[in-house]
Request: fold
Amino acid sequence: MKKLLMAVMALGLTSGVLVANEINAYKKCAGCHGVKGEKPALGKSKVIKDMTKKEIADAMVGYQNGSYGGPMKGLMMGQAKQLSKDDIEAIANYIGK
Reply:
């Protein structure tokens, strides 16, 4: 029973750390996309909260390699290039469906 309790506590702490990482990774996105991805950035982008986790991750990788984007492609390429694979995963998990 003691081992089970310790395992549950460890999972709780781990999930709290993961959520904190997701929020931190998304912070610089919130200025344009909204706190929960609810705004079309600068009135031109998709509302990202409606995208799946995979769509968000694929879009970020596409911005990084130049294969994705519309009117804000140039701006987003610079933002996405700064993101690590873990950052992209954290953002997708935080905002995506």
Q: What stands out?
A: Helices lie at 2-33, 53-65, 73-81, 85-95. The chain has one domain: 2-95. Residues 4-11 have pLDDT under 50 and may be disordered.
